[in-house]
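Lecture notes, unit on protein representations.

Consider one protein chain, 292 amino acids long.
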Amino acid sequence: MAPALVRLLSPAGCRWGLPLLGVVLAGLSACVTVEGADTEQNPYLQALEGQRADLRQARRALGERRFAEAEAAARQVIASVPGADRLLDPAVQLPAASRTASMAWVFVAAALSGQDKDADAEQALGAALRADLGNAIARFNLGNLYARQRRHAEAATQYREVVRLDPRHRQAWLNLAIAESHRGRSTQAEGIVRRLLERDPGLAEAHNLQGVLYLDQGMAIEAVASFKRAVGLKPLRADHHFNLAMALELSDRRDDAIQAYRRFLELASLDDPGRTAVQQALRRLGAAEAGR
C-alpha cells in the first residue's frame, strides 16, 4: 500500500506561533508571523519600526519566544493610538487608517498564536484590518489561520487580497494555489503554479506543489520530475525528499524510493512526525535498517 501523506510547504516565516511542519493535503499548517512576506525587508514594517522603538521591542520579544512580554509591549503601542484599543469591536472604525495600530495588532496576534490562542489571534487580526485595510501582512496571516481551520474559501479570499496588494508575494500565491486545490479547483491551482514557474523557474516550493498536484491526479511519473527539480533547487529540504520518495514508490522504483526515504531521515529533525511514516514505508519496501 502506498503512503497517504503528502508534504506541502508551510506558510513562510513561521518563527512565532506554531512550528514549521510539513502538512498533508487535507490540511494546511499555519502560524501568525510578523513578516508575512518573502523576506524580512518588508517596507510596511520597516517604516514603522524606524519610528517606533516599542514596536522593535515587541518584535525582539517575539523572536525570542517571550510571547507574554511581546503581547504587553504591542498593547502599549495600541494604547498610544486613540481608539485603537477598541478595534476588537467590529463596529468600531478609526477616523483614518493607522499603520502603527494595525501592525501592533498583528504583533498581538503573533504573540497569541505563540500561546496557542488562535481564536484570540483571529480577533486581533480583524482589529489589525480595521486599523488599516491595506495591511497585507495581516491578511496573509488571517488566510493562514483560516487555512488551518479548513476554511479554504475564506483563506483563498484573503490570499487573493494579499496578491492584489503585493503581486510579488510568492508565498501568498503558493498558499492561494493550495487553498484552491483543497476547494477542488485543481485547474485554478495548476494555473497559479504554472504562472509562478514562468516568472521564477527556480522557485523550489512551486515545483514541490506542482508535484503534489500531479500526484493528486495520479500522475506519479510527472510528479517525480517536479519533485526532482524541487530537490535539486533545495537539496536540504527534508519534505522535498519525502515527496520524491513517495512518487518514486508509486512509480514502482523501489531502490530509488528507499534512497530518497533514507535521505529524508538524514535531513529531518528527530521530532519530525514524518519519520514514523517513512520508517513504515521502508519496512513496507523490505529495506534493511528501516528503524534508523
